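Example record

One chain of 133 residues, shown exactly as stored in the release files.
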Amino acid sequence: MKKTFTSRCAFSAFLLVMLTGCATVHTASNFDGTKTNGARTPRATISVENYGYYLFGVVPLIAGNPLCPNENICMMFSDTVTLQNNQRMLSDTAHMFNARALANEKTTISWTGSFSFWVIWRKVMHTSAVAVQ
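Predicted structure tokens for this chain:
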């Protein structure tokens, strides 16, 4: 009886860790005087990622919180893995570097469901850009 309870608790903890959503922002700002196309001065390269898990790829279960990137704070039953939220995280980070514009912006979206026999789907949205002056 004890072994079964312990096994269930360990399995539940494993599932909880596997199903956490995350929103992250990474930056790099050392350009050594390099200019971008159009002779603009780059301030930072910004990479934003947000992911979440969906039941059958439709019903949001858990996703990253775009209001608190780089923290392990999740949103339950809320679809926060959107282009609008990635744009907001990108823009907020660009403002921290006193950038006036974004260049070379690119967004990719990927879905994966094979790890759970296509019951639970993972959606990852990645957006990157160069913040310029």
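Notes: The chain is about 25% helix and 40% strand.
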